[in-house]
Amino acid sequence: xxxxxxxxxxxxxxxxxxxxxxxxxxxxxxxxxxxxxxxxxxxxxxxxxxxxxxxxxxxxxxxxxxxxxxxxxxxxxxxxxxxxxxxxxxxxxxxxxxxxxxxxxxxxxxxxxxxxxxxxxxxxxxxxxxxxxxxxxxxxxxxxxxxxxxxxxxxxxxxxxxxxxxxxxxxxxxxxxxxxxxxxxxxxxxxxxxxxxxxxxxxxxxxxxxxxxxxxxxxxxxxxxxxxxxxxxxxxxxxxxxxxxxxxxxxxxxxxxxxxxxxxxxxxxxxxxxxxxxxxxxxxxxxxxxxxxxxxxxxxxxxxxxxxxxxxxxxxxx
Amino acid sequence: xxxxxxxxxxxxxxxxxxxxxxxxxxxxxxxxxxxxxxxxxxxxxxxxxxxxxxxxxxxxxxxxxxxxxxxxxxxxxxxxxxxxxxxxxxxxxxxxxxxx
Lengths: 318, 100
Ligand SMILES: [Fe+2]
Ligand SMILES: [Fe+2]
Known about the structure:
The complex is a heterodimer. Chain A has 13 helices and 2 strands, in the order H-H-H-H-H-H-H-H-H-H-E-E-H-H-H. By secondary structure, chain A is mainly alpha-helical. In chain A, strand 1 and strand 2 (259-261) form a beta hairpin. Chain A is globular and about 75 Å long. The termini of chain A are far apart. Chain B has 2 helices and 3 strands. Chain B has helices at residues 37-48, 73-82, and strands at 13-19, 26-33, 56-61. Chain B has a 3-stranded antiparallel beta sheet with strand order 2-1-3, covered by helices on one side. The chains are: A mainly alpha, B alpha+beta. Chain A binds chain B through residues 24, 26-28, 73, 76-77, 80, 83-84, 87-88, 90, 95-97, 152-153, 160, 299-300, 302-303, 305-307, 309-310, and chain B through 2, 4, 8-11, 13, 30-33, 35-36, 39, 46-48, 50-51, 67, 69-71. One fe (ii) ion is lined by residues 48, 78, 81, 157 of chain A.
C-alpha cells in the first residue's frame, strides 16, 4: 500500500471513531492502534490476574464463612475479568502464549497497586473499597471505548465490580464499628492503601505522555487528574461515614473549586514500584510463573486426553 | 491449533454463545481456551455465566467459523441498499386505505 493510500485509510478510520462507530477486529486499523490496544488491554488483563494474589492470600483465613464465600466469589470474578480481556486482546492477532510470555518475562506491566502486601484482614476491606473503587472510575469510561471487543468486555466487567466495592466497604464498616483494636486495624489499612490508590490513576496530566492520542481513540475520556479528583471527592464522605480519617493533612474542601484539595503524591515511590522495586514485585511475578509452570503437566494431560478421545471417536465411526 | 516453544500443542480457542433466556437467540459472549468441547462448555459456564446469565450454552472451535471480510462489505451489502422496492414504503397508496 502506498503512503498516500494509508493516509487516506487513516483519515476514514479516525472519522469513523469520531462518529462513535466501533472498530471490530477484522476492520482495517493503523498499526499504532493495534499495538496500543494490545499493550493496554493485555496490561489490563495481567492486572486482573495478578490482582487475585494479594486477596487470595486471605481466602483461607477469612473471619467467617460469609466473608469467605464473598471473597472467593470476588477473586473468581477477577479471574473472569482477566479471561474476558485476554480473549478480547487475542482478536488483535496475538496468542495467549505470547501474552503470558510477556507477563512472565517482566516485559509487560500490570497495575502497581498489586505490588503492595496484604498484611491484615482489614487490607481486604481496604482493597475492595479503595482499589476496586478506583478501578471502577478508570473502567466505566472504557465501556464506550472505540474497540468493540474491549468495550464489550468492559461492560461485563463493570457490572461485576460494584459487588466488589460494596463487600470491601462492608468489611471496613464492620471493623470501624468493632473493638478499638479492630477500628485501629481498619485505620491502619486505610493509611497504607490511600496513597497507592491515588497513584492508580497514573502520573499527573503534565507528566502523562499519550493522553491526546488516547482521548481520540476513546481509551480515555477524562484525564488522570480529573479521574483522581473524582475518586477523592467521592471517597472522602465514605471515609467520614466509617469514622476513619484519610492520611492527608492537606485534605480540605475547597468551596471555590467545588472539590477537595489534597496533598502532594510521592511520585518517587510510584516510579520505584513501576520499575520493579515495590514491596512485592518479585514475589507476585514468581507466584505467577510458578503457577504457570507447575500447571503445565495438567494442560498437557488434558490435551493428550482430548486427542485420545477424538481418535477413539474416529475409530468407532470407521 | 498453535504450538508452543516446546512444540507442545496449546489448548485451542473456542467461541462461546449463550442464550440468556428461552425465547431469545444464542448470542456471542466471547471466547476461551479449552482442550476439548466438553471442557470448553464447563469453562464457559464458569467464565461467562456466574450470575445466571444463561440457560443454554453453545461452544464452537474458532477455526470452524468462516467470517466475511470487511473489505468485501461493498459487494456483499451495498446491493441491498439499492433495492428500495423491498420495503413497504416504496409503494404509493391513497391515505384512505387502512390496515395496510
Ligand atoms: Fe476486576
Ligand atoms: Fe474487582
